[in-house]
Amino acid sequence: MLIFWKSIHGINLWKLNRMFIKLAASKISLEEQIQNGILKIEFKPKQAISLIGMEQKKEIEQTIQQLEGFEILKLCLFEECVPVYQEKRSLGSVSRWLEIHIKRDNG
């Protein structure tokens, strides 16, 4: 069970887990958010100049894959879901988002 203040690199895991569970429960809402096989979830920008390294990115992606809500999302709707953490520098901050690449089960 996740404690509501647990986070990784500024991403609140409890909130993200709840979002995955809500998306899994509402297929209509989920279908509206998927574009070209990618579900995009935006995070609050962080006040930083530099982007995170590959090790931190891999740590975020692995932690997300271990969330209960991510597992529920995979089991309920998709054959394979791959989380990809993204960042982009903008004026005085770093924009952050998660792309979940979806491979549908067509069989």
What does this structure look like?
This protein is of the alpha+beta class. The chain has one domain. The chain contains four helices and six strands. Strands 3-4-6-5 form a four-stranded antiparallel β-sheet. Strands 1-2 form a two-stranded antiparallel ribbon. The chain starts with 6 loop residues before the first strand and ends with a strand. The model has no long low-confidence stretch (mean pLDDT 87).
Task: Break the fold down into its secondary structure elements and pairings.
Blueprint: E1 7-8, E2 11-12, H1 13-25, H2 27-33, E3 34-35, E4 38-46, H3 54-65, H4 68-77, E5 80-90, E6 93-103
Antiparallel strand pairs: 1-2, 3-4, 4-6, 5-6
Low-confidence stretches: none
- Number of contiguous helices: 4
Provide the spatial order of strands within the biggest beta sheet: 3-4-6-5
Order of helices and strands: EEHHEEHHEE
Describe the oligomeric state of these chains in a short phrase.
single chain
